[in-house]
Amino acid sequence: MNKFMSWLEDSFVPKANKLFSRPFIAAFSSTMQKIIPFILTGSVIYFYNVIKSFVPVLPDLGPILTYSFGIITVIVAFMMGNQLMEKLGHPDYVINAGLCAVGTLLMVAMPLGDNADSISTLMGNLGAAGIAVGLIVGLYVGTIFHLWGKLHFLQDSSCPDFVTAWINTIVPNLITLGIAMVLVNVLKLDVYSLVIAAFMPLANIGQTLPGFILICLIPAFFYTLGISSWTFGAVTTPIFMAGIQANIDAVAAGGVATNIVTSESVFTMAFITMGGMCATLGLNALMCFSKSKQLKTLGRVFIIPSIFNINEPIMYGGKVVMNPVLMIPAWLNSIIGPVYVWILMSTGLLNIPSKMIQVGQIPAPICSVMITEDMRALLWWAVLFVIYLAVWFPFFKAYERTKLAEETAENE
Predict the structure, then answer these.
(1) CA-CA distance, 328 to 228, in Å (whole number)?
(2) What is the C-alpha to C-alpha distance for residues 87 and 353, in angstroms, rounded to an integer?
(3) What is the pLDDT of residues 397-406, one digit of tens each?
(4) Per-chain mean pLDDT for the chain
(5) Residues 6 or more apart from 37 whose CB is under 8 A from it?
(6) What is the rounded CA–CA span in Å between residue 199 and residue 61?
(7) What is the Cα–Cα distance from 194 to 128, expressed in whole angstroms?
(8) How far, in Å, are 270, 277, 362, 368, 395 from residue 308 at the CA level?
(9) What are the CA-CA distances from residue 380 to residues 245, 372, 388, 402 (Å)?
(10) pLDDT confidence bin for 2, thresholds 50/70/90
(11) Residue 42 and residue 118: Cα distance in Å, rounded?
(12) How many CB atoms lie within 10 A of CB 278?
């Protein structure tokens, strides 16, 4: 175990941090963080609509949803172009590349054929279902601007600076939009559908049990190494958004929700992330009653954040990160959680979420009932809490013995 931990700490973690800090990967991660406020804006309206269903006299706030979360693909395209320029060191292009990405996206997302004049189809393309397209468009635009920026065109010329800046924006604009125009208007390619089709195998894998486990386990694994789970948002967010949008559309059409793998199932419901990623609420509860004075004190300090599914304090302050004794149950819980949720939802023992409410800091099991609209969530949450507690217990007791020995040695 010591050799394994030394390898993780001295070799794997530095290499992983170096990889995730590369500009293109960092831009994907940063983009997912930047769009969260717009997703949460939509979540607030969905939550409001739950209240409105019981109080019909409340006003309709649908337009707020339509022009925030409803155009999330536009926001993604802008932010991807923007963040690429920031990470690649092109400060003069951070706004221009983002705006060009929006224009390129609109060209690509414009409906074709029988739906050519359909505003509703266009708005659908600009919603959650098209996030993958927004990412690819932003990546494409950012790459063109980056390559042009590396040329340093007219850098040492006698032209006024503002003229040079205009030219160095106009040219990549023309190249980016020109290539898109050739693909869409000359070659008549449905680029939007092609990108969605290319993304679908990944989305389909994500909506399987093995995919669900990996989506939960991989970020948790890196989290226990001190590497932020936000890094993986570029992969998981499109899967989550496409899944919940499909569920919303299915229910609106009179059908049933079928996509289990959504942000609502992973985060909002607080089954898999009970107390935070790695399901640390059980660990926190054990710490509150520890024989170790230090662990007991820390447990009582950390319990309020844990109730709201915020576990950075316990992960770092409670020494879960890079602690071989506590890393193992954290990984186990990240497998148990998705398997448990999958069994419940696939067998009809718990409703699949069909509302987009991505607020992971509502205490469970209140949030569990809210997002599933199923009172059975109370029972299943309690059962899972006991399971998590049982997983943490032997590892926690081993860690507690170590801390007690340290405290005894200090007092002698």
Answers:
(1) 18
(2) 36
(3) 999 998 999 8
(4) 90
(5) none
(6) 32
(7) 17
(8) 9, 12, 6, 13, 24
(9) 25, 12, 12, 34
(10) low
(11) 23
(12) 34
**Cis before residue 365, ω within 30 degrees of 0?**
yes
Q: Which of 90-104, 170-184, 352-366, 384-398 has the lowest mean pLDDT?
A: 352-366
Q: Where are the alpha helices (DSSP H) in 224-292?
A: 233-252, 263, 281-288
Per-position DSSP letters for 372-406, written without gaps between them:
HT-THHHHHHHHHHHHHHHHHHHHHHHHHHHHHHH
List the alpha helices (DSSP H) in 92-130.
94-109, 119-125
Alpha carbon distance 125, 193 (integer Å)? 10
In terms of Cα–Cα distance, which of 314, 286, 302 is closest to 400? 286
**Residue that wins the pLDDT comparison between 99 and 5:** 99
The structure tokens listed for 60 are 């309709």
- In order of 44, 105, 288, 310, 319, the CA distances from 306 in angstroms are 22, 40, 12, 5, 15
Q: Cα(first)–Cα(last) distance of the chain, in Å?
A: 30
For the cut 80, the answer to whether the pLDDT of residue 3 exceeds it is no
Residues 6+ positions from 154 with CB-CB distance below 8 Å: 164, 167, 168
Are residues 265 and 356 in contact, defined by beta-carbon separation less than 8 angstroms? no
Q: Which of 163, 177, 183, 190 is nearest to 100 (CA)?
A: 177
Q: What is the pTM of this model?
A: 0.80
Q: Which of 393, 265, 394, 240 is nearest to 337 (CA)?
A: 265
Q: According to the model, what pLDDT value does residue 129 have?
A: 81
Which residue in 128, 274, 286, 115 sits closest to 190, CA to CA? 115
CA distance 129 to 125: 7
Q: Is 70 helix (H, G, I), strand (E, B) or coil?
A: helix
Tell me the two tokens of residue 394.
């032997």
Closest alpha carbon to 223 in 302, 362, 334: 334
* Total Cβ atoms within 10 A of residue 309: 24
The tokens 């926690």 sit on which residue? 396
